[in-house]
Amino acid sequence: MAARHGRTERSIQELYRDDPERADALAFGRRGALKGTALAAMGAALGGAIPFAHSMPEGTLPALFARPAAAQGTAGSGAPQVLRMEGKAPLILQGERPLVAETPEHLLDEPVTSYANHFIRNNGGVPEALSGDPRTWKIRIDGEVNTPLELTLGELEARFPVVTRQLQMECGGNGRAFFAPQTRGNQWGNGAISNAEWTGVRLRDVLQAAGLKPSAVFTGHYGADPHLSGAADRPAIARGMRLAKAMDEDTLIAFRMNGQPIPHIHGAPVRLITPGWPGSLSQKWLTRIWIRDRVHDGAGMGGTSYRIPVRPIVPGSNSNGADFAEMESMPVRSILSSHAHGTRLPAGTRSLDLRGAAWAGDLTVRAVDVSVDFGATWTTMQVAAPANRHAWQRWTGRVTLPSDGYYEIWYRATDSDGRMQPHAAANWNPQGYGANPISRAAILVG
Ligand SMILES: Nc1nc2c(c(=O)[nH]1)N[C@H]1C(S)=C(S)[C@@H](COP(=O)(O)O)O[C@H]1N2
Ligand SMILES: [Mo]
């Protein structure tokens, strides 16, 4: 071992990337304790001593190596891929066609998500920017209704009560990068989430004005964005939801974001906001809501699309989604916004004031706990009440550190039904929805 020490030190980070099992065996040895030259090698690779090495779990990649590359702002090659867009922070560019960008967790430090820090998720192209008066934009409500409606944005605003709420919007694939084996789709960390303040009318009020027929069971949503193929008759995405969610008082046809007209990239001039359920149900550039007498069958419905196994399937296996169920309320998740993953703090730092947010779809968050000793002990954070139903909840708290060195901040939330974020992404599914494992941020002191 001693003779190999130098080489181990240089290569352990690469080895953890290429062959984590062998790296772990090398680092921990057969007895599962990290000590001696292996501990020194691990410390060297991580950039500091590891004060809680004795509770470092075997078989778990150190967070500094394990955090998905995308979540660190480096896609693949190591060169940071950042969004360059007027008024937007340098978000993590997940793709340019369609345009998709993730907000780094530490930029989600505002209680109300600003335009600058709001993630972007498109499935198709971005429609032409509006010319003319946005109040003349029309939406159609048809299908299983007594009176099909065609309403301009001006009429919507004048005819129905206007409400303003802070609402979470989270992509159904948020956390996808945490799945093993990897699944297809944008490799999101935890940053496909927002909590902006939306103003609009309740979808419920508009559906009641149209009058729902007894046969009405589902919605189907359409927007003005073109399919990437350019085919005019192919919607980029056309999702729908059970009527119960459409009738929820927080499901809005929104026309203002944070008090301003909705920015073009976020669906100007009018979009749905369906908080707590997959973000794909928050149709942008909204043109039509088709009320259906069956589960909607538009683009992004059926098979394995936004559907998850009722009974766990073998990770990595093929499935046509036959016995999957629609993904509805999103699972509990927390983010840390006060410290970026990989932050280096001055030597002598002995306590950390932490901040973040947590949410749980249609439920609320009961607790957020943090560990700085690899899960051996946990400290309870203070969790604020949501600003309103379906808003995220901010959390704060302090942890103490015994000495300089490498730490991992582990953070996990528990929902109001008692469900806690799991240690590893669970219920693997082919398109990677609902991965919400406990998160780990690496911090170096000194
Ligand atoms: N018309 C339209 N609406 C859409 C989409 C889209 O591609 N087209 N993407 C959906 C998805 S998958 C998500 S997660 C949210 C993202 O909204 P944002 O881009 O404003 O963050 O919009 C949803 N609404
Ligand atoms: Mo999404």
Would you kindly provide a brief summary of this structure?
With 446 residues, the chain is α+β, with helices and mostly antiparallel strands. The chain contains seven helices and 23 strands.
What does the secondary structure layout of this molecule look like, with pairings?
Layout: H1 5-18, H2 20-28, H3 36-46, H4 63-66, E1 92-96, E2 99-102, E3 120-121, E4 138-143, E5 149-152, H5 153-159, E6 162-170, E7 193-202, H6 203-210, E8 218-223, H7 243-246, E9 252-257, E10 260-261, E11 271-273, E12 286-292, E13 307-309, E14 324-326, E15 333-336, E16 343-345, E17 351-359, E18 365-371, E19 379-380, E20 382-383, E21 393-400, E22 405-415, E23 439-445
Parallel strand pairs: 4-12, 16-23
Antiparallel strand pairs: 1-2, 2-3, 4-5, 6-7, 7-9, 8-12, 9-10, 9-11, 13-14, 15-17, 17-21, 18-19, 18-22, 20-21, 22-23
Helix pairs in contact: 1-2, 1-3
Bound molecules: ligand MTE and molybdenum atom.
Residues 118-124, 171, 223, 225, 236-237, 266-267, 279-280, 282-285 line the site of the ligand Nc1nc2c(c(=O)[nH]1)N[C@H]1C(S)=C(S)[C@@H](COP(=O)(O)O)O[C@H]1N2.
CATH topology of the largest domain, by name, is Sulfite Oxidase, Chain A, domain 2
Strand proportion: 25-35%
In DSSP terms (H or I, runs of 4 or more residues), the helix count works out at 7
> Shape from CA axes?
elongated
For the terminal residues, how far apart are their CA atoms?
Answer: 28 Å
Number of E-type strands: 23
Which secondary-structure class do the elements indicate?
Answer: alpha+beta
Please, what is the CATH homologous superfamily of the largest domain?
A: Oxidoreductase, molybdopterin-binding domain
List bound small molecules.
Answer: ligand MTE, molybdenum atom
The ordered string of helix (H) and strand (E) elements is: HHHHEEEEEHEEHEHEEEEEEEEEEEEEEE
Q: Report the CATH C-level class of the largest domain.
A: Alpha Beta
CA-based gyration radius: 23 Å
CATH architecture of the largest domain: Alpha-Beta Complex
> How many domains?
3
Overall pLDDT level: 92
Helix content: 10-25%
Q: Characterize the main sheet.
A: 5 strands, antiparallel
Low-confidence stretches: 1-9, 69-77
